Amino acid sequence: MANNKQQENLEQTNNDNFTPTLHLCNGFLGGSGKSTLARLFCERFIKLGRLFTLIDADPNYNVARAYDRETVSLWQHKEVKSSVGSIGSRFGRSLADKVDTDPKVGSILLSEQIIFSKDAKFSYLGDRLLDIIYSVKLDLIVSLPANDGIDIWLESNNINLLMASESPPFKVINWWCSFGSGTSQQMFVDFVTRYPNLHHVCVFNLGITSAVPNWDRFDPLPALDKLSQDGKVKIANILPWLADPAILEAVDLGTPLHEIVKNGYNGKQLNPIVKLKIDKWLEDNWQSFRNTGYLP
Questions:
Q1: Cα angle value 267/270/275 (rounded, 5°)
Q2: In this structure, which of 136, 144, 165, 241 has its CB flanked by the most CB atoms within 10 Å?
Q3: What gap in Å lies between CA 177 and CA 179, rounded to an integer?
């Protein structure tokens, strides 16, 4: 199986016809589920043994902390300043070493920082992302911060127009995390209207209500419902977490979920029932995302 995965990765990185997919983990506010979504995507690619590039543009680097600890360790010892203040973005390398693949198969890049500024005069700081897209023949997972400047990056690089071309060089999936509020849904509708040539998914984070369920809040607004009925957007869900919350705390502190399932955490092994719960949570979430047609 490992040899087959290596061969598939080799064919992907050497295939000039391969079209990378840019998965934007986007949303309105902090806590809407962007980091959780990015982790779920990372876990999916690792499960499949597929190389990918992780770009953690969140100043808290919660995702990179778990999936590229070496990179984060380097940045924690070096404060980088720019004319817009402290740059908190992290660029994770392709995870060739995490899937038992020959590093020569994938592209190992030096760690660097990417920032998406809401100040138009600093929008060029995010342009390194284009270099990575064009030079690395891998799908990319981008964990965005709250109130990010991805819209300015899209505008300044004419991404919407580029996606309308006959053969776009890459695909963009806007995964918009929502906790069900009318404001977050309306902002998603506005984003879709502004960039109609991107692929769009509204991801309702059902885990937000796990303590006090309030499922009515996830009823789509009429405008969102119409976009869905017209096939212009897809709907997916992040499901409530049903295992010990301390496990998620361990993930936040920098341990990938698949490693916790395999090795436990805080010196404790997980019992088989808990492992089954986590596996089911992962599979059910992945199925929701795969139903959109945008996740392998």
A1: 150
A2: 144
A3: 7
Domains in the chain: ranges and CATH = 2-241 (3.40.50)
- Tell the burial category of 222 from Cβ atoms under 10 Å away from its Cβ (0-12, 13-18, 19+): exposed
Q: Nearest to residue 285, comparing CAs of 223, 201, 222?
A: 201
State the Cα–Cα distance between residues 201 and 263, nearest whole angstrom. 34
What residues contact residue 222 under an 8 Å CB cut-off, 6+ apart?
none
Please say whether the beta carbons of 123 and 151 come within 8 A.
no
Q: How far apart are CA 173 and CA 236, in angstroms?
A: 13
Calpha distance 216→211 (Å, rounded): 15
Give the torsion sign (CA, 83, 84, 87, 89).
negative
**What is the C-alpha separation between 185 and 227, in angstroms, rounded?**
12
What would the pLDDT profile of 263-292 be if each residue is shown by its tens digit?
998 888 999 999 999 999 999 999 999 999
Q: Which amino acid appears at position 23 of this protein?
A: H
Strand, coil or helix: what is 121? helix
The residues with which 201 forms a beta bridge, in sequence order, are 175, 234
Q: Is the dihedral of CA 235, 255, 60, 67 positive or negative?
A: negative
Convert the pLDDT of each residue in 158-209 to its tens digit.
999 999 999 999 999 999 999 888 888 999 999 999 999 999 999 999 876 5
Q: Is 50 in contact with 13 (CB distance < 8 Å)?
A: no
Q: What is this structure's pTM? A: 0.83
CA distance 262 to 283: 16
How far apart, in whole angstroms, are the C-alpha atoms of residue 182 and residue 253? 32
Q: What is d(CA 235, CA 185) in angstroms, rounded to the nearest whole number? A: 12
- CA-nearest of 241, 254, 249, 285 to 63 is 254
Are 134 and 157 a contacting pair, CB within 8 Å?
no
